[in-house]
Amino acid sequence: MERSYVKDVKKEGPVLVKGWVHDTRELGKIRFLLLRDMTDIIQITGVKGKIKDDLFKAMSQSRENVISVEGKVQKSDRAPGGFEIIPDKIEVLAEAEQPLPIDVSDFSKTELPKRLDYRFLDTRRRDINSIFRIRSSIYKHLVDFFYNEKFTIVNNPKITTIGLESGADSFVVNYFKNKAVLAQSPQFYKQMFVMGGFERVMEMGTVFRAEKSHTVRHLTEFTGVDFEMGFIKDENDVMDVIENMMKYVIEKVKDDRKDELELLKVKLKVPKKIPRIPMGDLKKVLEKKGKKLGKDDDLDAESEKMLGEYILEKYGEEFVFVTNYPWKVRPFYHMKPDNDPNGTRSFDLLWNGVEIATGAQREHRLDILKKQAKDKGLKVPKIYEDIFKYGAIPHGGVGFGLDRITQRMLNLDNTREAVLLPRDPERLTP
C-alpha cells in the first residue's frame, strides 16, 4: 500500500500513514494516538478488546517516536479533521530518546536561544513549521512576480573585493594569496548587468554584514531580495513595481497558506494604495507628536513606529513610502533632485512601522557620480567606474530582506524567528 499524507485522508477505507507521535492519551479502555506528518495531524484510536492486544500495547508510544500505521479510516466528529484511523498494524521506525532536549508541543515555553540550538526539533512544532512554509511561499511568489515582469533572475558572487555599502563592516576572508570580502550587497553587480543589456535584473541571495548589532531586527547573514531596472523616469517607477509586488505576494500567500495563517492567527491585509510622503513632511508629523529630528537626521526605530501608527490611523494602510531622504544619510550613488542638492531621489518602505526596504534612482552620469563620491570622501573604484563609460542607462532599484518581510507579515517579535538558522554576533552554530 502506498503512503498517504494526513492532509489527503478524506474518505473511509484502508490507509497507510507515517509520521511522528505528536501526543498520546488514555481514557479507560480507549487509547488515542495523534500522528503528525508534514501536512497535518490525524487521530489513531484503539479500543481494548476490539483490536489485538499487541496493537493496543503498541499505541503506548513516546512522543516524537517515528511510526508507520496501517488501518481503516472512519468518520469521527470528535477527531481532528473529522476522521480517525482504527489500526491494523503499527510499526516503530525510530525511537526518540527521552526526555527531549526541548518541548516541541503546541504549548512550548522554551526560550528562543535553546530552541535555535535544537532547531531541527523546534521546526516540528506546527506553528514554527508554518512560519517557514509561508516564507517558502513568499520566496516562490517573489520569483513568479519578477519573472512575469520581465526581470532576468541572476546569481551574483558572494566572494568579492567590492564593498559599496556604507554603515556596515565587511567580513574579510583569505582567498588563496589574496584578501576578499563576503558581499554586503549585490548593488554593484545589479548595476553592471542592467548596463549589460538585461535592463531588468533581480536576485535573491545571501548578504553578509559584519555589524555588532544585538537588536531583534539585525542579523550578520540574511537573504536579500534585490532588483534593479533600467530606463526609468524617476524613483516612482521603482516604487510602482514594489507596490505591485507587495500586493501580488500578499494576495498569493493569503490564497495558498490559509491553514498556516489561521494556525498563526494572522490576517493579511492587501494594500490598496501605498502613500508616498516626503521625509520632511513626516518629520513635521513627528514633531507634533513630540519627536523632533534634525533636517539631515535619519529615522530611528521609535520614529518609524510612530509613523506606522500615524499612517494606519490616517490612511488605513500598513505601508508607507518615506521619500526624499537627505543626502547626508544616503550612499554616493543615489541621485539628487535637480532642485535640491541636499536631498536624494530615494525612499524607504515601512511596514507597520518597521523599515523593510531601501531604494532609489541611481546616478548614471559618471561625472556627477564621481563628484558625489568625492563629496563623501570616497573614490569610485575603476571596476565600478567602467560600467558607466560605455552607455549607462537611467536606472533605479531596491534592496529588501526576505527575513524581515516574513517577520512583518507574520507579526513576529524577532527576525530570528523568520530564519531557520540565524547568524548574529553571538551565534555561529548549528
Describe this structure in words.
This protein is of the alpha+beta class. It folds into 2 domains: 6-94, Nucleic acid-binding proteins (OB fold (Dihydrolipoamide Acetyltransferase, E2P)), CATH 2.40.50.140; 126-418, 2-Layer Sandwich (BirA Bifunctional Protein, domain 2), CATH 3.30.930. Helices cover 30% and strands 26% of the residues. The chain contains 12 helices and 16 strands. The strands form 3 sheets. An 8-stranded mixed sheet has the order 6-10-11-16-15-14-13-12, with helices on both faces. A 5-stranded mixed β-barrel has the order 1-2-3-5-4. Strands 7-9-8 form a 3-stranded antiparallel sheet, with no helix packed on it. Strand 2 and strand 3 form a beta hairpin. Helix 4 packs across helix 6 and helix 4 packs across helix 12 (402-410). The longest helix is centred in the first third of the chain and has 23 residues, at 126-148. It is elongated and about 90 Å long. It starts with 12 loop residues before the first strand and ends in a 20-residue tail after the last helix. The model has no long low-confidence stretch (mean pLDDT 96).
